Amino acid sequence: MKLLKTFVILLVIVALFGGAMYGLNLYTGPIIEKNNAGAANDKLNAVMPGGTGYEDITATLSDLPASVTEVHKETSGLGYVILCTAESSYSTAPMEITLGVSADGKISGVEITAYNDTESFDFRAKDPNYLTSYIGQDSALADVGLVAGSTFSSTAFKNAITEAMGILIANDMIAAGVKGDDQILTELIATVAPGFTKLTEEAGIGNIQKILTAENGTGFAYIVKSGDATVLAIVNAMGVCKVYNVEGADVTAENDGVVTEVTAHAATKPNKFTDDLTAKIGRMMEGAADITPVALDTFNTVVSAASFTLDGATYYGFYARSIGFHQMDVFFVIDENGAITKMDAKQFIFDEEYFMAFGGMDVGAYKDGFVGITGETFTGDETIIATATMTSNAMKEATQDAFDAFNALKGGAQ
Amino acid sequence: MDIKMILGILLASIFSKNFALIERLGTGAVLENERSSRRSLTLGLGTTLVMVLSTLITWPLNKYVLEKVPYMQTMAFVLVVLIVVEIIHLIAKNILDTYCKANFVKFAINGAVLGLCIENSHADLVTALVTSAAMGIGFMLTMTVYAKIKNTLIDEEAVPPTFRGLPIDLLTAGMMVLALLALNFKF
Amino acid sequence: MKKGTKTSYLLKGTPSALLVLGAGFVMASSHDIRAALGMGAAVLVALLLSSIVVSALHKVIPAYVKLPAYLLIITGFVSLISMFMQAHFPEIVDMLGVHLAALAVSAVIYRDAEEVADHNGEATSIKTAIVTGIFFTVVMVACALIREIVGNATLWGKPIAFMQEYKISTIAGVFGGYLVLAIVMAIINKITKLHHHLDEEEEN
């Protein structure tokens, strides 16, 4: 009897409230559904002002890069919204980006919905106007730079935007933006002078329109007016200059005036790399004599090279400055046959506590691992330091660059 | 589901995702607890049982029945928890009531159990069950440790009068939270 | 749950005695003023409605069914409130998350129903429910003000420009909830001690 009564009372309560909920749901259900749909559109509307409805066209597009996750078309024809991701060496997970592109090919808005890079390098904090600078740009992204102090993350972000807009261009949905000479030449630097990392820009003087200085000291790049044309002149840390036109062709021979002007400018900012290398060779190879600096026309991370003799044999010393977690200073001694005799670096990893496993690293063995490697036998695996990917990659770059410099030196009729 | 994952869920439930302290579900039941360790453990064990059995029923219920009427979820879950608690209480009345000198039914129906059932409905069944057991153990340990700290380490006389009672309880629990968060490198 | 503890805050029937039971949702929803107000309103309405129903029905429902019956009544009202809020304040529901549903089994509302509404007429029950509800709202809003401004440098979700450099994010985090609520409660203890007799008159 008690059980029955309990059951009945509870049943009545549940039924009453169930009924009430059902009733209320008739009223709230549609509103909630509308809210949910609105929330999905809100994200897209944030980068597409005035957008009304969206259609997911991701499946209809060809050649979708992995970084692009979704493409939505605004139904009234305002443009497209792309959800994409960007990943840099500082990413714990890909950065998530919402990008709005209007029908005329201009960026209508861009937002980062999930930022997963090292927080202290957050470019949004370093430059609060950075994202705004993308608005109104076409696919050339002519007026968009990188954020100093957050180069890796902002480069990854910029590349993701370019890639995302590329998918719209490839599918003939928007027209590609036209790049100016200045922009083409600036972008050319990465190809012709791969060692010039983290460039900072300043205004030029005279015919020089723009000066770009590599933070790692590997050299300078100049955008110079030469007659009617604009050319790119690069000067490495050893004072060697090369000139390229907008087609990317080497036009050094036809531009003596430019070479003189930029070399003179570079000479006003001398470096001490040769002195450092000479001193280092003296310490690394006791008894080294006839240390003669050599100027090479390489534009990688090698900032200084020298030849010297020891016990009757000739050796070559190279000083490479690649950037890992921090600036690296790496020295190589390579013998006549192209094999590494000795490798040393000022410091492999600066922030030991960050790389907790570093305490267990045998630095001596690591250095010895380089001995005997030649340009042909080098695989890149020799440089790996466990848990320190960025430092490993920087070591790999420095080693490869030293071999390239050696080949340039040997090829250069020495 | 391998041993690594089970261990991961267990550690997360006890430390970084501790229900009572970090997720703040069932905090009241923990803060109020000043029972002896033996009683706390018994009550906690009972709660763990309730969590696992409730999940075993609410998960399929949610998946196959409540999908169409999501607004009935809370009502249905409370009903399930109620029934499970009553059944456990009926079976283990002697142990629970004499050991704990407390109303197990009132104790076991708390935010932690209901919150767990709701959160578990998003995971798959095996994960949900492992999570329930782990969260129950975490809950049990938390209330035992908290009671122990409160009863033996806190000198009520030394606490300023205005901080006696709830404020010092909150600060005690807060210190436990700090310790748990420290394991997570997240303050 | 057991009564008569060695500490004095569990004075039967006073709102601050109930706070320990609601500490979880108070801390979980006091990181943002909007969430605090939303939760405060939900608590107030749930208390009020269940008080009215329980005090009207307490003579009809036999003693042995009281616990499940009252629980289900509270759950029903909480569900209805949360449906209503989901329709009209979806952002707040998102902020509160599972804590809104967990209100259904909160000992705060249950104890209010069991200890006040079950023994008293509707007038007293409604009065107690309103006092308790407002008390919870005030505590949550006070905590939220501190936590949002100091911890997050925002007010009502809007950034406060000059505070941006000085925010202490721990205050907005989990530990901040405990710390700020402890301080707010200590201040309340200080104040209510001055008006102790008044407090008792109001509550009993």
Description:
The complex is a heterotrimer of chains A (414), B (187) and C (204). In chain A, 32% of the residues lie in helices and 24% in strands. By secondary structure, chain A is α+β, with helices and mostly antiparallel strands. A 5-stranded antiparallel β-sheet of chain A has the order 1-2-3-4-5. Chain A has a 5-stranded antiparallel β-sheet with strand order 6-7-8-9-10, with helices on both faces. In chain A, strand 6 and strand 7 (208-214) form a beta hairpin. Chain B has one domain (16-183). Chain B has helices at 3-14, 27-31, 37-64, 73-91, 93-100, 104-108, 111-120, 125-153, 166-183. In chain B, helix 1 (3-14) runs parallel beside helix 8 (125-153), helix 3 (37-64) packs across helix 4 (73-91) and helix 3 packs antiparallel against helix 8. Chain B is globular. Mean pLDDT of chain C is 82; it is low at 1-13 and 194-204. With 204 residues, chain C is mostly helical. Chain C has helices at 15-28, 33-57, 66-88, 90-96, 98-102, 107-117, 122-152, 169-172, 174-194, 196-203; strands spanning 154-155, 158-159. Chains in contact: A-B, A-C, B-C. The interface between B and C is large, with 56 and 54 residues.
Q: How would you summarize what this structure contains?
A:
Chain A is of the alpha+beta class and 414 residues long. Chain A contains eight helices and 15 strands.
Write the layout of secondary structure elements.
The complex is a heterotrimer of chains A (414), B (187) and C (204).
Chain A (H helix, E strand, L loop, with lengths): L1 H44 L8 E3 L11 E7 L4 E8 L8 E8 L4 E8 L8 H4 L24 H20 L10 H12 L6 E5 L4 E7 L4 E8 L2 E8 L4 E4 L11 H12 L5 H12 L4 E6 L7 E9 L2 E8 L9 E6 L4 E6 L17 H6 L20 H23 L3
Antiparallel strand pairs in A: 1-2, 2-3, 3-4, 4-5, 6-7, 7-8, 8-9, 9-10, 11-12, 12-13, 13-14, 14-15
Chain B lengths: L2 H12 L12 H5 L5 H28 L8 H19 L1 H8 L3 H5 L2 H10 L4 H29 L12 H18 L4
Helix pairs in contact in B: 1-8, 3-4, 3-5, 3-7, 3-8, 4-7, 7-8
Chain C lengths: L14 H14 L4 H25 L8 H23 L1 H7 L1 H5 L4 H11 L4 H31 L1 E2 L2 E2 L9 H4 L1 H21 L1 H8 L1
Antiparallel strand pairs in C: 1-2
Helix pairs in contact in C: 1-6, 1-7, 1-9, 2-3, 2-4, 2-6, 2-7, 3-4, 3-6, 6-7, 7-9
